[in-house]
Amino acid sequence: MKKLVLFLTIMFMTMSYGQEIKQVPLINVNGEGKVKVAPDQVCISASVETKGNNAKDVKKQNDEKMDAVLKFIKKMNIPTADFKTKQVALNPQYDYEKKKTSYNAVQTVEIIVKDLSKYDELMEGLVQQGVNRIDRVSFESSKLAQYQSEARKLAMKDAKVKAEEYVSVLGQKVGKAFTISDNSQIYTPRPMYAAMKSMEMDAAGASNETLAIGEIEITANVSVSFVLD
């Protein structure tokens, strides 16, 4: 009997709780905010790669070329804090057809250039000093966090405007935000191998200006659910 009374009591409480739950009227919208800015710095990832049949000789050649590259970077008055070695590797490569082992040495340096007027000269000099692989060229903004914040605020404003436009037709008002989801991505233009093009133009006697950095478009995308009043 006690078990039956307990069971009926729990059922009653559950039914009462379910009746108290109310459906919250919501409107779900997406918002987008964009900020366009000119880059004020460029990040370059450049590698020296050498190959040969003798590991010691391959490493020595690679070290000598990278030494020349680092000296050139310093000569360009790039602060020490703005360039660093990112990779050093010496790997054997076995040729099963010739049954011989060769070696491949790679050193990669990452450089942040805050004076964009040095870009063309630096890229051309890197190639001349021994860089034979440009892995990445990324034009960036040193104030990225600030512009990301601005884009997010614009995205939220856009979402609220859209919500208000929809519900105004129904004679309702937009209340507080119920849920917010951030779906933002960042795009940075990456023109590759500009130094190589510059050298080709020099040989033809043409202008060596290759830098067309454009703008960075920082976009924020949000999904927002607003409560309807």
Automatic annotation (TrEMBL):
<dbReference type="InterPro" id="IPR052022">
    <property type="entry name" value="26kDa_periplasmic_antigen"/>
</dbReference>
<keyword id="KW-0732">Signal</keyword>
<dbReference type="InterPro" id="IPR007497">
    <property type="entry name" value="SIMPL/DUF541"/>
</dbReference>
<dbReference type="GO" id="GO:0006974">
    <property type="term" value="P:DNA damage response"/>
</dbReference>
<dbReference type="Pfam" id="PF04402">
    <property type="entry name" value="SIMPL"/>
</dbReference>
<feature type="signal peptide">
    <location>
        <begin position="1"/>
        <end position="18"/>
    </location>
</feature>
<protein>
    <recommendedName>
        <fullName>DUF541 domain-containing protein</fullName>
    </recommendedName>
</protein>
